[in-house]
Amino acid sequence: MTTQALPREPRQDRSRATRRRLLEAAVDCLASEGWAGTTVAVVAERAGVSRGAAQHHFRTREELVTAAVEYGSEVRVAQMRERLDVPSGQRPSTLDVVTMLGEMYTTPLFRAALQLWVAASSDEQLRARVLPLEARVGREAHRLTIEALGADESVPGVRETVQATLDLVRGLGLADLLTDDSARRTRLLRQWATTLDAALSR
Amino acid sequence: MTTQALPREPRQDRSRATRRRLLEAAVDCLASEGWAGTTVAVVAERAGVSRGAAQHHFRTREELVTAAVEYGSEVRVAQMRERLDVPSGQRPSTLDVVTMLGEMYTTPLFRAALQLWVAASSDEQLRARVLPLEARVGREAHRLTIEALGADESVPGVRETVQATLDLVRGLGLADLLTDDSARRTRLLRQWATTLDAALSR
């Protein structure tokens, strides 16, 4: 063991990078192995981090999964902003918007979120953690979709139609869970874009 | 113990009734306790059946859950037929159809199915069992919705719009998992019925 103190910043950076790798591995693990298969040991191995180092960050499975829930919802909000928050002069087409939404709800991140929702439906403590995070993701998805579509919520029915678009892509995410539903989804969203344009009178 | 033989029919009836009680309890248990919480012992207690009697019908948790999957999909198809398969002279309004669909995707039966889909997404054997059953439920839901709406699938876009309606209500089922979403759902489906009428040119 060296007595020379390591420079402070790099160590903090390494710690942050390790934590982030563990959280990314936890999200992937939730998506592919499900709730029961996501343990600190499994996630540590997937992340290429020693079990000791993993337990330095997350002592229990509960701590790890809670942090993964928070991390996953932050990443989902950030991805939505990155893809939908464009200057109004470069507004995407309705088809582009619904295609982007369709993609966002069929990622491993969505599958991981789905595992959490279902686990939270029979676990009060988890539900209390998941609900405020989901509310935030939902509000941001709605706001960004309204802006990307250039939709006017003061027109009666517009708010509900945009909400229906988000519920639709959530349903499409579910339809993609057990089989590759991409061909049907592409046809369906093409038609949805036409319906949406008519409904929003664009 | 009596040596007198019991009449044959009643015993078979009792056995069928017990089996049915166990399957109903298994569906309820999946919906409220989740996949991991659904064991033969828990389901037997919920059904008011002795553990011995339960194990006479279902030796393992696997057998019970598989039978519950099949039973649940039969009941879902039967419920859809009962509610949507009406004589063409008494065709329901578009709002009635989407309201009925919205109700069907927020029942304990839907929640139980959701638990199965999510469990099947990380379990190949279960997936192989769930897929053909889900395909059957999906085909029947589509056929009944087309008929109830009096929609003409030969018109371009109609097939996709009806499919989107079913994906939308599936998404609404998911939105109802952690909170009571009924007020928002009612507004949304009222608007969707208007959009659907315009899209189907009814």
Describe the overall structure.
The structure is a homodimer. Chain A is an all-alpha fold. Chain A has one domain (about 10-200): Tetracycline Repressor, domain 2 (Orthogonal Bundle). Chain A is built from 9 helices and no strands. The interface between A and B is large, with 48 and 48 residues.
Q: Which structural traits does this protein have?
A:
homodimer, 202 residues, mainly alpha, Tetracycline Repressor, domain 2, 9 helices, 75% helix, elongated
Topology of this structure?
The structure is a homodimer of 202-residue chains.
Chain A: H1 8-33, H2 40-47, H3 51-57, H4 61-84, H5 94-104, H6 108-120, H7 124-149, H8 158-175, H9 182-199
Domain HTH tetR-type (chains A, B): 16-76
Pfam families (chains A, B): TetR_N
DNA-binding region (chains A, B): 39-58
Tally the structural domains of chain A: 1
Low-confidence stretches of chain A: none
The sequence of SSEs of chain A as H and E is HHHHHHHHH
Could you name the CATH homologous superfamily of chain A? Tetracycline Repressor, domain 2
Number of strands of chain A: 0
Q: What is the distance, rounded to the nearest whole angstrom, between the alpha carbons of the first and last residues of chain A?
A: 68 Å
Report the C-alpha radius of gyration of chain A, rounded: 20 Å
Mean pLDDT of chain A: 90
Question: What is the fold named in CATH at topology level of chain A?
Answer: Tetracycline Repressor, domain 2
Pfam family, one (chains A, B): TetR_N
Keywords (chains A, B): DNA-binding
Organism (chains A, B): Actinomadura soli
Protein name (chains A, B): TetR/AcrR family transcriptional regulator
